[in-house]
Amino acid sequence: LHSGIGYHTPWSVHHGLTDQIDETRQAALTRAWTAHPERIRQCQPTTPGIPSHAWINQPQQQEATLNP
Q1: What is d(CA 6, CA 17) in angstroms, rounded to the nearest whole number?
Q2: Where are the alpha helices (DSSP H) in 1-68?
Q3: Tell me: the pLDDT tens digits for 17-62?
């Protein structure tokens, strides 16, 4: 599981299973919080979600050059 992709495996991201997995995780977090709210004092926990982009080695952005 990788924190950079919302604690999913690359396989689950590639195959589009993240929404289903996040729903299952959120249901479990909600049940745990409802049963023992004193353990998590700030607020109800939520799943981290998937970022729009994830990189192993982020490519360097090249500066645009103007030809005179």
Answers
A1: 12
A2: 10-14, 18-35
A3: 999 999 999 999 999 999 998 888 788 899 988 888 777 777 787 6
Rg of the chain's alpha carbons, rounded to an integer?
Answer: 18
Beta-carbon neighbour count of residue 6 at 10 Å?
Answer: 19
Question: How far apart (Å, rounded) are the C-alpha atoms in residues 24 and 37?
Answer: 19
For tokens 């049963």, the residue is 35
CA distances from 66 to 9, 43, 59, 60, 62 (A): 42, 52, 21, 19, 12
pTM of the full structure: 0.69
Q: Which residue has the tokens 């970022």?
A: 51
